[in-house]
Design goal:
This protein has helices spanning 90-103, 132-148, 156-161; strands at 5-13, 20-30, 33-34, 43-48, 57-63, 71-74, 83-87, 106-111, 114-120, 171-173, 176-179, 184-186. With 191 residues, it is α+β, with helices and mostly antiparallel strands. It has three helices and twelve strands. Pfam families: Adenine_deam_C. Residues 23-179 form the Adenine deaminase C-terminal domain.
């Protein structure tokens, strides 16, 4: 295992609030990629641009979701509604993003390369065309699947959807971390 380490900014989310904190965490680097550390609840987060095929993928780390396995993703991500993914490993994150792209949007929970739950949102990736009662039951199953992964937030998809929103301190975009007050990109790695 590589002994290379790097200090990175860590977005910290909290239950039942849209406000985030920013901490610092030391993570290992393997083959040039910064690795998640589940024991520190330092999970990778990515935002994949989905409207103009730019290929942009913003990457950072987040704490507060409590996941011990798998990944969650959504196309509901204010204000640009790109694909947002939080996970414990890059493979499940990639699978979640790809399934959402093929589904034309939605909310998904993935574990071990398999979809545990998926709510399809075929209308702009934001709205379901299913009856409200059905979507309510699907959302309950979705939240239960997140809890099975170790998730501890009462509304993990709602919390995740506001990470890109221009609410101080730092936010995520498809270009990386952004300071919404100074309107500039911010380096993930602490110097």
């Amino acid at each position: 295992m590589s002994t290379e380490q790097v200090d990175v900014k860590l977005l910290v989310v909290h239950d039942d609030t849209l406000l985030k904190d920013v901490n610092r965490v030391t993570l290992h680097v393997k083959n040039g990629a910064i690795q998640p550390d589940i024991s520190k609840d330092a999970l990778p987060i990515a935002i994949v641009e989905r409207h103009k095929a730019t290929g942009n993928i913003g990457k950072a780390f987040v704490s507060g979701f409590g996941l011990k396995n798998g990944a969650i993703a959504s196309t509901v991500a204010h204000d640009n509604h790109n694909i947002i993914i939080v996970g414990t490993n890059f493979n499940d994150m990639a699978i979640a993003a790809n399934v959402l792209a093929k589904s034309q949007g939605g909310l998904i929970v993935v574990k071990g390369g398999k979809t545990l739950e998926l709510i399809k949102l075929p209308i702009f990736g934001l709205l379901s065309d299913s009856p409200v009662a059905q979507v309510g039951k699907e959302l309950e199953r979705l939240h239960e699947a997140v809890r099975e992964l170790g998730g501890k937030l009462s509304s993990p998809f709602m919390t995740m959807s506001f990470i890109p929103c221009a609410i101080p301190q730092l936010i995520m975009s498809d270009k990386g971390l952004v300071d919404p007050i100074k309107l500039r990109l911010v380096d993930l790695i602490e110097s």
